Each structure stands twice: as C-alpha cells, then as structure tokens.
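Quick review question:
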C-alpha cells in the first residue's frame, strides 16, 4: 500500500502575512528596547550622519523599523524554507 502524501491547502494571505509580521514586530520591539537602552540615538547620529537633522524620536522610529525589516526578513526566510516541497516538485506531464 503506497501512502500518498497529503498536500495541505495554501493558507490565506492574511494568515501568511500575520505569521511573518506579528512575530517580527514583537522581536523588533524587544530588540529596539535592548539596543536603545545602551545607545543614545543622538550620539549615534553624531558618529554616523552628523549633518542630518535626526531627533531622538526619529532615531527610535528608524531603529525600530530597521529591526522590524531585519526580523521580518528572517521570518520570511523561515516561511519559505518550511513550505511543502510537494507544491514545487510535481511530476511532469507526458506530452
């Protein structure tokens, strides 16, 4: 008896986006708090881009979105690796 692998149906787009964006949002919040507990955005600006008018609040915001982009890309990569191979490795049809 040959077992036929079960191909689960694709998840809705909202569920896929939520599975990527929500954990990365949480991780970005934690990373932002830890990073800015030790680094002042104004001191960072003075060392990197001293001529840019970056306030402390804008520095926190830019830092959060940078961490969110990094953690979202990590979650997206994990999602790509965990997709079922059966969706991409189908047998070729005979002409």
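Suggested answer, residue by residue:
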């Amino acid at each position: 008896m040959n077992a036929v692998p079960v191909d689960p149906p694709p998840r809705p787009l909202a569920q896929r986006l939520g599975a990527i964006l929500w954990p990365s949002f949480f991780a970005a919040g934690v990373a932002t708090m830890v990073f800015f507990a030790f680094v002042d955005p104004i001191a960072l600006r003075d060392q990197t881009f001293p001529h840019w008018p970056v306030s402390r609040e804008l520095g926190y915001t830019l830092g959060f979105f940078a961490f969110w982009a990094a953690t979202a890309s990590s979650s997206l990569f994990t999602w790509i690796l965990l997709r079922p191979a059966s969706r991409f490795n189908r047998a070729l049809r005979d002409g």
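Why it works: Residues 23 and 75 are 8 Å apart (CA to CA). DSSP finds three helices and no strands in the chain.
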